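From the methods appendix. Each design record in this collection lists the tokenized structure first, followed by the designed amino acid sequence. Records were kept in a plain field format so they could be parsed without special tools. The example shown here is representative of the layout used throughout.

RECORD:
FOLD TOKENS (225 positions):
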């Protein structure tokens, strides 16, 4: 019921995940990122605790592959889980348990990993990886959106999707982007893409507001000096 792309920007060191599903509020359960550490997408019959656990393992120095091996060896009910990891060096790893739903697949590339279940085709994750790699040099958010659009163009899920999230981290401890379409009867990928286009121009300014308010720009709204 879910497809995702997790990536690292080799130019900035940013990490991000874009994920969409037929179920509501997909990003709240599936997308986990940490500045300077990596990204973990945990999906299918989701265990959200595997995201922070995977990030902790990579923060302790394990590669994406080694962290995945530990998760698979130690997690309960791992046969129901689908996982995708990117570490700080851009190394990737992916896993699909034997009880992953429907047509499923994963694909790894240079600093990018895609995973999906209940898909129309096993080729979709590879299509997402190729779209991400083809946009090298663009902003990480734009590359993640491009991969999601490529998934939809290639057939996406078997049924309609209703939610999407886009999360990214940079050099600060919080998510610099945490954009969510938690439910829509329309197109969550395009709604999230529009939200990203709106947020992108303000994102750095809101980081500046936290780090140095005296240098933060005024937005000209009533009451803003």
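DESIGN:
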């Amino acid at each position: 019921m879910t497809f995702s792309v997790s990536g690292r920007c080799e130019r900035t060191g940013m990490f991000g995940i874009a994920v969409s599903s037929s179920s509501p509020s997909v990003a709240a359960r599936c997308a986990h990122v940490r500045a300077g550490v990596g990204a973990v997408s945990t999906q299918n019959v989701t265990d959200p605790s595997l995201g922070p656990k995977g990030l902790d393992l990579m923060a302790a120095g394990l590669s994406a592959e080694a962290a995945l091996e530990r998760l698979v060896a130690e997690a309960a009910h791992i046969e129901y889980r689908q996982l995708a990891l990117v570490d700080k060096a851009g190394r990737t790893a992916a896993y699909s348990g034997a009880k992953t739903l429907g047509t499923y697949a994963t694909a790894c590339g240079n600093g990018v990993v895609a995973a999906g279940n209940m898909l129309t085709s096993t080729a979709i994750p590879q299509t997402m990886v190729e779209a991400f790699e083809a946009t090298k040099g663009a902003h990480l958010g734009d590359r993640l959106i491009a991969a999601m659009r490529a998934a939809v163009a290639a057939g996406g899920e078997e049924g309609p999707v209703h939610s999407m999230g886009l999360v990214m981290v940079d050099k600060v401890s919080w998510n610099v982007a945490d954009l969510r379409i938690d439910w829509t009867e329309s197109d969550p990928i395009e709604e999230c893409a529009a939200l990203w286009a709106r947020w992108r121009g303000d994102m750095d300014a809101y980081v500046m507001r936290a780090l140095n308010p005296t240098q933060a720009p005024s937005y000209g709204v009533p009451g803003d000096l």
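APPENDIX NOTE: The two ends are 47 Å apart (CA to CA).
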